[in-house]
Amino acid sequence: LGCLVTDQVLSLDSLNVVPNCLANIQNCKRLKQAADIIDVNDQVRSNDGATKLLDGNSTITSGDGCDDTCERLVDSERDSTSDTEDDHDIQDYDDGVGDTVGVVVLDRAGNVASTVSSGGIALKQPGRVGQASCFGCGCWAQKPIILGSNSTAVSTTGCGEHLVRTFLARECGEALAGSNQPLQELQRVMKERFAESEFLSGVPEKLGGAICMQYDKESCQGEFLWTHTTASMGIGFQSTCEEDATVKMSRLPHSAQQGTTILVEAVPFHTNPE
Q1: Which of 70, 165, 240, 269 lies 20 to 30 Å from 33, alpha-carbon distance?
Q2: How many CB atoms lie within 10 A of CB 64?
Q3: Residues noted as catalytic
Q4: Distance between CA atoms of 269 and 274, rounded to whole angstroms?
């Protein structure tokens, strides 16, 4: 995850990005008939912030992944009565897990942007929908909405199901937009909206993290912040006036417990008036 302050101007209007979260309900219903992967009768928290997202053991699956999963479940039932495979017939399985790549950017005109790409989780169901494709969950960027507010950009990482249920990117971005104490505000959001969220009740370890940028165009002052409940999170930040990026592995204290301890840190920065 990284932050970039650039002297180039972002063409935000030309991006025309539409948030993607496609979960075919008919496929989900078919999938439910085969296994308890998703319960279509559960209340789902939608983009307008309604109710809860699924139960503690559910996964959203979309597109062809639902068909693939159904076929595999049916096939596994057929094979359950047959003999197990010999050792020499078992092939190595590549789970295809990468890692999260997230970026928040500020250009010389004061525009902010954010993006995220997630590698998913090990042994994930085909077609699983993670936070990267869900509105307000994987990334968030907004310009000042009211006089005196800040521009913010956020990119998240962690367990996708936890990030989706809590809308973590949007929660962080909206909170930082109206705060003049960003470090304390981010700590509050991670505690109240994530670690103690009603949407994660019953989850013993809440695994999430975020990089955030807050910028006030009037004063040309900003802060790059990072937070996580995971044991570690790799970050980097750089402005175009710096020759090299600053990179570090942010880690919880040795005595801290992953999933229950919140770490929040920040570095200030300033820009030159145009």
Answers
A1: 165
A2: 12
A3: 100
A4: 16
